[in-house]
């Protein structure tokens, strides 16, 4: 039998399927629903507040670069660009909400501080690597100028 996701469907169908008296089952479901809503409510002291203010789950950001291995040949217009992929360079992001203000209209205002920490064990390379890239706006400008004349 299909069990719906709304509270009324779940309660009525669960009561219908169980041989238990209806009163204790309905009371149990309402207590579970109340307990869940209290834990999920965003307010100081609630279980979810700490997770919202400072998420405990690590957030990783990975960057890849394309290193131009033959810049002299490219700038002399004698060679096509030859790129080598470098990375990933991995950083762990830490987020913290500060200056939290609970507004009278039921909203919350805050500022968020984001910090990034280099994760050398998750990185293929180091922060000392030198990467040569093309200046794309300059290349587009040069190509546009050359093709217009």
UniProtKB/TrEMBL annotation:
Q: What is its main location?
A: membrane
Please state the span of the N-terminal signal peptide per the UniProt entry.
none
Where is this chain's protein located in or outside the cell?
Membrane
Keywords, A to Z, come to: Glycoprotein, Membrane, Transmembrane, Transmembrane helix
Task: Identify the InterPro entries for this entry.
Answer: CD36_fam
Taxonomic superkingdom: Eukaryota
**One Pfam annotation, family name?**
CD36
Q: Which family does it belong to?
A: Belongs to the CD36 family.
Protein name, UniProt field: Protein croquemort-like
């Amino acid at each position: 039998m299909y069990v719906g996701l709304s509270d009324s469907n779940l309660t009525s169908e669960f009561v219908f399927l169980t041989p238990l008296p209806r009163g204790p089952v309905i009371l149990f479901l309402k207590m579970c629903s109340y307990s869940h809503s209290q834990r999920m409510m965003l307010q100081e002291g609630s279980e979810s507040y700490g997770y919202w203010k400072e998420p405990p789950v690590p957030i990783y950001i990975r960057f890849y670069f394309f290193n131009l291995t033959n810049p002299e040949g490219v700038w002399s217009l004698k060679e096509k660009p030859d790129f080598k992929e470098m990375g990933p360079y991995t950083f762990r992001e830490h987020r913290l909400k500060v200056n939290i203000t609970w507004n009278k209209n039921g909203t919350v205002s805050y500022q968020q501080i984001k910090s990034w920490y280099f994760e050398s064990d998750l990185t293929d390379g180091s922060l000392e690597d030198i990467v040569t890239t093309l200046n794309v706006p300059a290349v587009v400008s040069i190509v546009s100028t050359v093709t217009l004349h």
